[in-house]
Specification:
The chain is mainly α. Helix content is about 70%, strand content about 5%.
């Protein structure tokens, strides 16, 4: 019973980290940054939402490996529902008029500032959530396909193959939807689209390769903690 409670607690913590990162991605994704890499003569440009995004895929891979496919799908759906609730609350907050004294000179936020930071959702946010749902489900399905095929071995293979494949779909789909449905957001230029796609996908591949290390550390720790064999899952 104690072991099951510990497994449940860890699942709750992982879910909290996952949902926090997902919501953060959706709140900050409209800011873009550029970093010039002089020795490569290359400028990396991408949304700041990309910072927390890869963590969500690391968490779903851990949950998939330790708790199973069904639990991972429930986690993704919980994240989507949580994001929709947050967006609904932001919409309400954006709709309510600011008080006369709620202004920057009083260290407060007025209507215009609030809307500029938090009010830019709609088609872009709907496209983001839809894309994320599709790609996470692809990631989970591919992960478990390889897990079954390899009989629970080669964690690095299914982690990287599932993440890279789903990120390829994700990067293309979100930029395509934003450009097609909402060109006024600044993605009407094919050069911008190509650069964002290349930068975003290369970054996600790099992170997918790097997160193999923490994935192995965390998965091995949980396996030892709960005496799990290779390929064995906890059933809550």
């Amino acid at each position: 019973m104690k072991e099951k409670n510990q497994a449940l607690l860890i699942d709750i913590i992982l879910s909290g980290v996952f949902i926090s990162c997902l919501i953060t991605c959706n709140l900050i994704f409209l800011k873009f940054f550029s970093i010039k890499i002089n020795f490569l003569n290359f400028t990396f440009t991408q949304s700041v939402g990309l910072i927390a995004y890869p963590i969500t895929f690391l968490i779903t891979d851990i949950v998939s490996e330790i708790y199973g496919q069904k639990k991972a799908k429930y986690l993704v759906l919980a994240g989507i529902v949580s994001s929709m609730i947050v967006l609904g609350l932001i919409f309400l907050a954006d709709f309510l008029p600011a008080a006369n004294w709620s202004r920057p000179e009083n260290n407060k936020v007025d209507n215009e500032t609030f809307h500029l930071v938090f009010g830019q959702f709609g088609i872009a946010m709907a496209a983001s959530l839809f894309t994320y749902l599709v790609c996470q489900l692809i990631d989970i399905r591919i992960f478990h396909f390889w897990k079954k095929l390899t009989k629970g071995k080669y964690l690095w293979l299914r982690n990287n193959f599932s993440t890279i494949t789903s990120q390829l779909v994700d990067t293309f789909l979100i930029l395509f939807l934003l450009m097609t449905l909402s060109p006024e957001k600044g993605l009407e230029n094919w050069t911008d689209l190509k650069n964002l796609f290349i930068n975003g996908f290369l970054f996600k591949i790099l992170v997918a390769l790097l997160d193999t290390i923490p994935l192995y550390i965390l998965v091995n720790h949980l396996r030892n903690k709960f005496n799990l064999k290779i390929g064995e899952e906890i059933k809550l």
